[in-house]
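Reproducibility note. Readers wishing to regenerate the assembly model reported in the main text can use the exact inputs given here. Chain order matters: entities are listed in the order in which they were concatenated for prediction.
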Amino acid sequence: MKKKKETQKIVFKTEKDFPLMPMSVGSMLYNKTGAWRNIRPVIDLEKCIQCGICWKFCPDVSIYIENEWPVVDYEYCKGCGICAEECPAKCITMVEEEK
Amino acid sequence: MSKEKTMKLSLPEEELMNSGHLACQGCGATLAMRYVLKALGQRTALCIPACCWSVIDGPFPYSSLDVPIYHCAFETAAVSASGVKAGLEMVGDSETTVVAWAGDGGTFDIGIQALSGVAERNDDILYVCYDNEAYMNTGTQRSSATPYGAWTTTTPVKHFKNRPKKDMVAIMAAHRIPYIATASIGYPEDLVKKIKKAKEIKGTKFIHIYAPCPSGWKCRPEDTVKLSRMVVQNAIFPLYEIEWGDKYILNIKLKDKKPINDYLRLQGRFHHLSEKDIAFMQEEVDKKWERLLGFVNKCQ
Amino acid sequence: MGNHALSFGAMLCRVQVISAYPITPQTQVVELLSEMCADKTLDAKFIKVESEHSAMAACLGASLAGARTFTATSSQGLTLMHELLHWASGGRLPVVMGNINRSMAPGWSIWSDQNDSLSQRDTGWIQFYCANNQEVLDTVIQAFKVSEKLLIPSMAVLDAFTLSHTYEVVDIPEQEKVDEYLPPFKPPIRLTPDEPHAFGGLTSPDHYFELRYKLQKDMEKAPALIEETGKEFKQKFGRFLGLVDDYCCEDADLILITSGTMGSTARVAVDELRKEGIKVGNLRIRAFRPFPFEKVREIVKNAKKIAVVDRNISYGHHGVFYQEVKSSLYGHDGCPPTFGFIAGLGGRDITPSTFREIVQYALEKKRPEEEIVWIGVKR
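Running the prediction on these inputs yields the following structure tokens for the assembly.
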């Protein structure tokens, strides 16, 4: 599964750069929501049973599958803890972010 | 990493929702959108009235979805979708699924007139209501979808909401539309199946999705999915379908219906309730469940 | 009847989506369009909504999807749509609407005055005030051309009963010629999964200002475009549709400024008074938004007095056309004494003798003694 590429913040210099009506011309991928979190999920791949549940229940699409294993995208993960709570193998731990 | 196996994902792999959106941690509404878009695919157009999702998607000039969105006026989700569908068909596109994507406020309250009109005409749109049981976007004021007993900023603890949750599914059934279904983000495969089924039907389809809000319900963000399972297991939000307003199909039979206590305890918005209140609420849930079973059994 | 002229105009423009709710005195517009859709004279989808608010909402959705859309309403219905009128202009959606000027309740009145449409003057819609059935039909065609070029919605306004229900002989243009004048609607951007955008999302103070600046700038192109498309219309169909309709103003001492059907009645009065030697002229304002500043200044500059007749009132201020005419003349040379008259509210009849009374008053007084002169009120 390919990870979506991040995009740039958009800056309009003059009114001529604006679209005619209020419409999106860029992606929210520029917004690194990883900065929101206080705790981060850490997956212990030794215990992981590759069930895909953490990928399934992430509201921020911040767990992607690479080479059949789940990987946390820390640029966007908000630290909600759903993955840790739902993991049937209990292999995800929520760890405090260092200051 | 000794074992190597191919992961079998129970949902379509393609993501049409991107990271970077503005939802709170643990937002149920976001999971609802993620699953519905997986079920529908890219040839989808959304009409989103004022609700959490008008903000979650991101401000101008950005969007976090890979499908087009018409941010429409609050009361108009259903009929804006009708208009978009009519317009698309007239310009030669009858393939795109047009979805009205509204919260409980824009469905049960201010948007109910337009929705009723659309349903009565059986316009060909998919109406999805993601229900977080209050006007969450404006800071948790009560809606007619707020359950009995809940705290909100306009039903403070001393005057908690003392009217039952409006039975929107029954109202929609009275319109005799081809397909109605309830769904919960705790059962994503069931949700995806129902959306795919609705997509193939012509006419008005109404899907009511249960979507917890940790911010407004005062519950832990990590409990979102757990609550979405409990609410089905204790029959507060049973999963069922209704075809043409009178054929009821129960999707999850409850051999061993759980009491509502544990569910209520996980949410701060219910912490003020007395034993008497909870007993009353349990009675109401039981009555409603029996009534639903009655409808289901009549259709066997 | 006038209402049917709207329907024929919409049909000739090959509108694709219609969404409307009945209200007296607009019902015939939608009834005829409904028949045309049913017998396939018009290939369009007609969404029979449950309120005017929903009617406009459906039109906006269809327009965003790239279809040519039309609706019609009146007074209570128009004001119910108010929120969405802002949506249409801010969203740059070129919907065309017929509005039958009908008095606002309470008490219930089905007769003509202009408060309903003038209450919408700030919503960013182009407004054409029509005076006869031919003009109604022609205006719908011109309105689509102007709206689709600028991506600004427009409305054709008719007086209740005096225009909406009066029968006149109308020349119906040939479909081929209309097709040449008005090609199919091809917006630069539309809602489609082929090129996904989110339309109308949260817009911060950093961005909102420029978007609205652009709307005003495009609205400022409208006067010239209306005159240009009006001239093209004359070449194709033999009738000119300009910003104003002036009559006998070149050498007039006193110019009446009117709008709608009373503008035609004023002509009759002008003819009568001219026979009696009174040099009076009539300037009927056809395009109220965008306001035709240049045209008004040019036409009234040599007059000694102006008498603006309003079939409306902005409570706490004066008649709306009076305010707008005065403000267009302020600070410019050729700003003669301007009298403001209010007549015909609630559909009270405006006749040639109404104008006679107005002209007499204006000729007697050197300067206006009050900002509102009420004509015909029982006092």
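We highlight two features of this model. The two ends of chain B are 50 Å apart (CA to CA). Chain B has one domain: 28-298.
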